[in-house]
Fold this sequence. Notes:
With 402 residues, this protein is α+β, with helices and mostly antiparallel strands. Helices cover 21% and strands 30% of the residues. The chain has helices at 10-19, 27-35, 86-102, 112-118, 137-146, 156-164, 194-203, 285-288, 382-390, and strands at 43-45, 55-59, 66-70, 76-81, 107-110, 126-128, 149-154, 175-179, 207-211, 214-219, 238-240, 243-247, 255-261, 264-277, 300-308, 316-319, 323-328, 336-341, 344-350, 354-359, 369-372. It is globular and about 60 Å long. The relative contact order is 0.13. One of its GO terms (cellular component) is mitochondrial matrix.
Amino acid sequence: MSCRLPMVSAVRTVGLLRRGEESLLLPSQRRRWLSASAIREDVLSITNLEDRTRPAFARTASSKLSTLTWSAPPRNVLIVKKRHVPIVRSALVSLARHLKANYPSTNLILEPSTAHSLHHEFHFPVYTLPPSEKLGPRGERLYHDKTDLLITLGGDGTILHAASLFSACRMVPPVLSFAMGTLGFLGEWKWEEHAEAVGEAFAGGARVLRRERLKVGVYDCDGKRVTGEWEFESIGDAHAMNEVNIHRGKSPHLAVVEVFVSGRFLTEAVADGMIIATPTGSTAYSLSSGGSIIHPSVSSLLLTPICPRSLSFRPLVLPADCVLTLKLSAKNRAGNVEVSVDGRRWGGIGRGEEVRVWAEKIDGEKGGIPCLKGRLGGREDDGWVGGLNGLLKFNYPFGEEE
């Protein structure tokens, strides 16, 4: 349907949108509306959308994968893209048009900066956070409540960023990822397969891998939760897809960290820092620090030191049901160390304070990050094994050409 309206109706159209709290255009964009004869659709508030449709996951008897089912077709689709890459920008425009053409009832949700830079490409509205909702507990809550399906266009960093939008949410929507980044180890689908992939996601029956996350809590010397600079305090523990790490940051001194496993003292580490990783994160920062590689379907925690002052401190693979505690020792020379979750700084802890990390429990629809698997020869581990060989060059001989 054409969006061209007579100029005389422009003021009336804008007024209606304002009364419905739907218009999110910046003031300069509103001025262009009043002066242009061609009126395009607006950027609308995500608050206008109905609440999300919750999926269900049925475990398959022959593997650790699940099958995705919907009680009703997904309506609200959040698309997160890699920034500043023209080919990814074009892919998002094509994907959005494909979704509206083939699934007309779909509502497209974009991050605010993406929505305001691309809305003019479409003859249908797109949705985003209202201006008052900055990213944080309240803004992310709207993503939690409204998103049925999450699609990422980019690399592993884009997937991590998208997952961070749901870091305080127990029910992450199914994630359909297209590998369009630098490495793409986590990307399950090629862009050329987007029509097939979207069809599987909407129809149901797609294979899903529930990637485990970590739960993170920060506690003081008396065992009480720390409040203040920690963004997630008001809404519960944060979740990490890859890893949690504490590190000395700008301090010239090594960190002195006491390590406990389910309340029992393990060791006192003197190192640049410590990493606690998921199986998914075992091929990220932990691997660069000498950690083991763990298949994503193996439920476990990985403890990896960062440059320890010891030749005998080896990475440990621990059961997923244990609680790992990293406590900053009174011997630590600096006043505090920094804590990062999936590469983002979340705050710092002082002497006597501790970070407690444990695996998130996957129970029914709750827990984990449900990632839609690609069709790779029918074997659930083909993508992971292929990624080790093709992307990470596992056991690649010196001097051998591809």
